[in-house]
Amino acid sequence: MFKASLDNVAKITPVVMIFFSIGILMVSSFSSGDSLKYIVLFPSIILLVIVFLCYLYQPLGYLVDADSLHIVRRIGKFIIHRNTIEKVIRLAPEDLGFAWRMAGNGGVFGYTGWYSSGKIGKMRWFVTKRTNYILVETSKGSKFLLSPDDAAGLVKALK
Predict the structure, then answer these.
(1) Which of 42, 122, 137, 139 is in Cβ range 3.0-4.6 Å of 87 for a Cys bridge?
(2) Hey, how many other C-beta atoms are within 10 angstroms of the C-beta on 75?
(3) Phi, psi of 37, deg, nearest 5
(4) Which residues pair with 137 in a beta bridge?
């Protein structure tokens, strides 16, 4: 398996979010108005649920076997069948151009979801750090961005 380590932003962001939510929960428990408590509790609980879901779906690594490429997560695997892979390209961060999130996670235990770039177009990210990019393009027109610790090794294993 090719490991996928987190960069500093992906490590710090969830910690800040958890401490922020716990701080708000603690402050709201001391407030005197009941209606205010519930107004403050709801977003804090939602934030904690989002952090937990991001933790469960964080890419832990990439596994290559004879038939497929597996994006390994704590809950479920995402599978790309090798017979559909047309291109595997290493990218430098500047090769992406300006990328924006269409729907997804931008730094809580990684960068996952659907993104778009002016240079590459729409793609799905399973990224844990903003270096070592590998772009996988399939015959179905799908594009996936990965970030293994050993990018050269993963490219070699997929070719």
Answers:
(1) 137
(2) 9
(3) -55, -50
(4) 87, 143
What CA–CA distance (Å, rounded) separates 12 from 108? 8
Q: How many domains does the chain have?
A: 1
Range of the domain at 95: 1-159
Cβ neighbour number for residue 159 with a 10 Å cutoff: 7
Residue carrying the six token digits 């809950």: 75
Alpha carbon 62 to chain centroid, angstroms: 13
What is the pTM assigned to this prediction?
0.90
Residues 126 and 58: their CA atoms lie apart, in Å, by 8
Which of 5-14, 20-29, 62-71, 146-155 comes out lowest in average pLDDT?
Answer: 20-29
DSSP string computed for 86-129: EEEEEE-HHHH-SEEEEEEEESSSSEEEEEEETTTEEEEEEESS
Q: SS3 for 30? A: helix
| CA 7/CA 110 separation, integer angstroms | 8
